[in-house]
Amino acid sequence: MKKVINYTAYTIAVVAIALLVQSFIGGNKNDGLVDVKEDGRLQYKWFVPELPKTLMFAGERVPLERWEVRERLERELTINYYMHGTTLQMLRMSTRYFPQIEQQLKANGVPDDFKYLCVAESSLQPLVTSPVGAASLWQFMKDTGPRYGLEVNEDVDERYNVSKATDAACYYLKESYGKFFSWTAAAASYNCGQAGYTKQVEFQQKSNYYDVALPEETSRYIFRILALKLILSEPKRYGYILNPEEQYRPLKVRTLSVDTTIKNLAEFALANGSTYKMLKLANPWMRSHSLPAKKGKTYMVDLPLDKQ
Predict the structure, then answer these.
(1) CA 150 vs CA 109, 141, 142, 147, 210: distances in Å
(2) CATH architecture observed for domain 56-246
């Protein structure tokens, strides 16, 4: 039998619930985050997220007393604050990847804040590839990766190896810091290149990132990193709530040491109690159906455990 809906009662219920919500979030109809229209529709209110009074990046002070600096940060914070779905997903992925990234940054002597550069690059999506071919979490280009110790070919692409790519990013950032004597400048050069940043510094005769006019993407880059730092480091302050069971955890794996060629990865996975699909999920750096071993090189292959 077809169910008949009493739309009048339904509308009254919606309005009642909305008014109840109002009592919690705003006290009255005009002060809260939601207005209730006469027909029961909800009209949400949007606000500019509040900036902190002081802010640091990698131990370097952000000059928020400067109007153009403050406005540029407000722009990026507002944009990222209202990207609700994307921000929630980044928060979920951060609990999977941050523990490893934080450990490697510390071991390499790179400030912890650079984990937010990784978020700005890829939104912590390990398989993402940019339109120009930059790949994975740290978005290395195909020709740049090998300069920092990453093997990149049709069978193996270590840009997708989180551990090795993080070490490579640290190598680049420390190299840039040695050139510019500033972690903020090093971060900017990750976007526009060391040569690009040097060219602007020499022409403008200013080396401080906040004093240099840069291309639009690089001009926004540091402020996107700062906005992500604010939101991801204090998500509840900005209204993002994730329960512990909703957060993604690092994959539990068993690791095999491989120094000989694997001709068929599907057969290898089955022989080791796994599947080709799970093998590829845990090792996205494997780019073909086989793993030709280079002489003298050992690969660490992860196999996810059944219970996560």
Answers:
(1) 20, 11, 9, 7, 32
(2) Orthogonal Bundle (1.10)
b (16+ CB within 10 A) / e for 247-272: ebeeeebeeeeeeeebeebeebbeee
Q: What DSSP string describes 192-226?
A: H-HHHHHHHHHHHT--SGGGS---HHHHHHHHHHH
Q: Rounded to the nearest 5 degrees, what angle is found at the Cα of 91, between the Cα atoms of 300 and 275?
A: 35
In this predicted structure, what is the pLDDT of residue 5? 44
**Cα 90 versus chain centre, distance:** 6
What Å distances lie between residue 209 and 40, 168, 177, CA to CA? 50, 23, 13
Packing angle, helices 114-122 and 183-192, rounded to 10? 20
Instruction: Tell me the average pLDDT across 219-226.
Output: 98
Report how far residue 4's alpha carbon sits from residue 54's, in angstroms, rounded to the nearest whole number. Answer: 58
pLDDT of residue 17: 54
From first CA to last CA, the distance across the chain in angstroms is 45
What is the model's pLDDT at position 13?
52
> What pLDDT score was predicted for residue 272?
97
Q: How far is CA 64 from the centre of its chain?
A: 24
CA angle in degrees (0–180, nearest 5) for 268-270-272:
70
Ranges of each domain in the chain: 7-44, 56-246, 253-304
Among 142, 201, 180, CA closest to 58: 180
| pTM of model > 0.85 | yes
